Amino acid sequence: MNIPQVSVTELPDDALILDVREQDEWDAGHAPGAVHIPLGELPARLGDLPDPDAGTLGVVCRAGGRSSRAVAWLSQQGFDVANVDGGMQAWHREGKQLVADSGSPSVK
To answer: Which residue, of 21, 23, 53, 100, has the fewest CB within 10 Å?
Structure first.
C-alpha cells in the first residue's frame, strides 16, 4: 500500500494534525491545535477525529513509523490522511511551533 506523505515544510501552521504518540511524548511537546489520540486508542476514538470535510489530516508520531501505520489503517476506513514525513523530530528541526502542557516544550 502506498502511504500518502506530506513534508513538514508543506504543512501550514494551522494544519489539521493528529498526533498518535503516547501521553508522555505529547506532554513534552506537540503541534499547536493538534488532536491527541495514541495509536492504540485510535480504533475506539474515530469520533474524536476532526471533521473529515476540513481537508487532509496530517498524522504525526515521533519519527514516522506509528503514524505510517495509522495512515494506512485510516485510509482503509475512508479518511483523507497523510503521514507527516519525519514526524515531530522533523517538525522540531524545521523550527515549527511546539507547545507543552507544562514547562518548555521538547520532542521525545
So the answer is: 53
Paired sense of beta strands 35-36 and 57-60, if any: unpaired
Rounded CA-CA distance 57/16 in Å is 5
The grid coordinates of residue 26 equal 505529547
**29-50 pLDDT, tens per residue?**
999 989 999 999 999 999 999 8
Q: In what order do the strands lie in the sheet with 81-85?
A: 5-7, 81-85, 57-60, 17-19, 35-36
Q: What is the set of domains in the chain, with CATH numbers?
A: 5-93 (3.40.250.10)
Number of helices (H) and strands (E) in the chain: give both, helices first. 3, 5
13 CB neighbour count, 10 Å cutoff? 9
Q: Compute the average pLDDT of residues 41-62.
A: 91
Position of cell 521538547?
Answer: 106
Q: Which of 16, 34, 57, 61 is catalytic?
A: 61
Is position 47 annotated as part of the catalytic site? no
